[in-house]
Amino acid sequence: MGKQATEMLKGTLEGIVLAILSERPAYGYEITAWLRDQGFSDIAEGTIYALLVRIEQRGLVDVQKVPSDKGPPRKVYSLNAQGQEYLQEFWRTWSFLAERLERLRKGGR
Amino acid sequence: MGKQATEMLKGTLEGIVLAILSERPAYGYEITAWLRDQGFSDIAEGTIYALLVRIEQRGLVDVQKVPSDKGPPRKVYSLNAQGQEYLQEFWRTWSFLAERLERLRKGGR
DNA sequence: CCCGCTATTCAGTGTTGCTATGTACCGGTG
DNA sequence: CACCGGTACATAGCAACACTGAATAGCGGG
Predict the structure, then answer these.
(1) Which residues does B contribute to its contact with A (CB < 8 Å)?
(2) Of A12, A18, A40, B15, whose CA is between 20 and 30 Å from B5?
(3) By the 8 A CB rule, do B104 and A16 touch?
(4) CATH number at residue A19
(5) How many domains does chain A have?
(6) Is the pLDDT of residue B69 over 70?
(7) Residue whose C-alpha is closest to residue A79's, from A49, A59, A94
(8) What is the pTM of this model?
(9) Which of A40, A93, A109 to mutate to test the interface with B (most CBs of B within 10 A)?
(10) Which residues of chain A, if any, have pLDDT below 50?
């Protein structure tokens, strides 16, 4: 999509990745591919990796190195307890925003 | 709200302001007050003014200086044709994002 | 042997919202 | 009159985040 999407992704992309990880552990390449598949056509590789590093440093995920028979080893991330909590907070913030935007779209005051 | 909101606002705040202006012309101080009233408790004054300057420079709004009997003159902004178009695009991008997030929240794959 | 796919990393850039501060106009109070 | 609070706008500096582009590296096939 356009540049509007780029700016709108700030903050939400992190939540999206955490939500994905809350369903099952995953690694960067896999997540990027899945997002592209879902229509986030222009999400750059580097973006996801940088994001994963950030959430790891914040202690929201646990990491495990797993060998792959198709290339270099994968860094598999899984959401830990603190990450779950953070994700909950994310959904609260998202709901707040989405609610107000939906109200605005309908022309309500 | 927390810092999550700060990042999530990036990109959406612009759309929010444009949506407000699509209902009726308004000036910065008024918009800030309204947003605070709607629960965006920590939106800074300066943020809105900077945003208004940006969208003016991009030609999305028209400006008119209107004297006030309670203080300095107001800069009243109104959405023009180009702004309307940009707002439409914003809603499309927003729908795209909201749809996918809602799907993720429901744990759907 | 090189190419393509898998997989990760990183330096540099632009946009955005926040912080903090400054300017300025007005009316009311002491 | 001096001061203060509410109204109204502007701006310089900062932090966070996603994108660009490139580099590194392992693996298998032509």
Answers:
(1) 1-2, 4-12, 14-16, 19-20, 23, 38-40, 89-91, 93-94, 96-98, 100-101, 104-105, 107, 109
(2) A40
(3) yes
(4) 1.10.10.10
(5) 1
(6) yes
(7) A59
(8) 0.93
(9) A93
(10) 109
